[in-house]
Amino acid sequence: KRRLVLGEEHPDTLASAIQVAYLSFLGVSSSVAPNDKAVEDLFVKAREAARRVLGDEHPVTLEATGGLATLYYGTVRYDEAEPLCVDGLEITQRVLSEEHEATLGFMNLLAMLHCQRGRYGQGTELVTRALQIGERVLGKEHPAAVSSVFALGELYRSQDRYEDAEPLLEKSVQLSRQVLGNEHFWTLYYMHHLAYLYRDQGRYDDAGQLLVKVIEGRLHLLRENSGLTQRSITELVHMYADQGRHDAAEKLLIKSLERTRRLLGEKHEFTQTYITELWLLYEKIGRASCRERG
What we know:
Layout lengths: L1 H5 L4 H16 L9 H18 L5 H16 L3 H18 L5 H16 L3 H18 L5 H16 L3 H18 L5 H16 L3 H18 L5 H16 L3 H18 L5 H17 L9
Helix pairs in contact: 2-3, 2-4, 3-4, 4-5, 4-6, 5-6, 6-7, 6-8, 7-8, 8-9, 9-10, 10-11, 11-12, 12-13, 12-14, 13-14
């Protein structure tokens, strides 16, 4: 309706399109199914239009840049995410100030990218500054400040500094539950990484229980056709298998395979992933053929 009244390239129309893309990414929009490709197409189209009409430094364009960078990070496309973050941070610091919420968002995301690249010193320095600014300017319960808490905890976890990481990751989950809710995209994301920490500490029961909650939340929020949902299911399967809980791993895989076959089809990449995982599980435990079971 807004597009019909104002036109496709009106700033309000572009802002609305970016909002739809971001809400779809979070799994709270009914207008677009929350699958990675559809959401990416929304962000790319909206960002291209915003850059053309409003320029690279307009807040609407920067919002689209941040959303697309976050999507790329969440789908493990770090090479595509990093240049967007670097450019976005440079522009927001110069145009909006270092204390702006958008600037802190780019700082947090770039710090996580540094973490993934093994650049722990750069990541820690960046996110520590973001955390100090966020808590002072926005407050400790603001989502940007909570994101900084999580990012610092994840940096510590990646360096095997588990005692330093645990209170931060647990705090990020607690605050996100309070502020955003139990099944919000970011709450589930923080829970998933807290499960990683518990796994790394050998606390497999705690990690498994947390992953079950993450999977349940993602199936409800993002549904089956999200890479994050598929990834959390596969990781729980591997955790069960590593513990020798082969029956639990098999049950989860068969249930997931049946669901993706029904909802996404036999040829979908996630269906094929579960088939492959089932083959590997049966091979590991010496069972004859998963054709008979799958």
